[in-house]
Design a protein that fits this description.
This protein is mostly helical and 297 residues long. Helix content is 68%, strand content 0%. One of its GO terms (biological process) is transmembrane transport.
Length: 297
Amino acid sequence: MPNTASDAPARTAGPRPAGRRGRPPLRRVLLGAAGAAVGLAFVLPLVWVLTNSLRPSADTFRFLSPVGWETFLTLTPVLDNYAALAGTSLGRGILNSLLISAVTVVAGLALCATAAFGLSALRFRGHRAVFAVIVVSFLIPFDAIAIPLADLFRDWNLQNTYTGLILPGLGNGMAIFLLRNFFLAIPEELVEAGRLDGLTWWGVFWRIYLPLSRPALMGAGLMLFLFQWQAYVWPLLMGTDADHVVGPVALAAMQGQFNVDYGLMFAGSVMLILVPLVIILALQKYFVQSVSTAGLK
């Protein structure tokens, strides 16, 4: 005779209905929809700029009312606007921006990493006050001090020089802040072991801190690059001749006094967007890691 008491749990504990298995919760669906909407709001203006760079200037606002698929897509792209860029100063401006940004990243990382190491590993009198001044420095908009700083640089004969364009971007308070917080997360036991092995403080910095800080260095370097790449007010004040014009200033100079060739302007904007876009997409994981680990300690 079968044991009905022992069979009862086996009969009642069956699989869940197929309709409810694997169904995501409502909160996750709503968050996904909100994220997609925010991403679309950021992407659509870029798509509109790219599409209008492939159209004649006369058709720039032709498909805005009513808004349809032709507003953001074109079936007859032309490259006339990009060909017309050859007759402007944008090419020279992009090369100057690349040079200024590259030198800023190399020299700025050396300066900011050294300062962050001194503020994190070395304990000296007043190091907290120095760090507080650095934090306050990146809270002040650079444009607020650009004009008096430009007068000072003119007195030093640094106008229309690459040195004058590069110097303000070397000491970045935000980069020092991120690097210092990342350095604080490095175990002190490693530093003590290095010191016992005979390493100087420079050796500790070079052999322990820098190899472990690649994500933070990548993130700080990306910030230094973007600061110089998108700078407009400072290069406008300091680079007034054709040899030292940068990309954003060259793009603004393409705008006429009485008319604007929007197709040409959009083509120039796309060219200026491509370089930082490629760099950000290639290094985005390092930037996210540097920001996420900035508050570990």
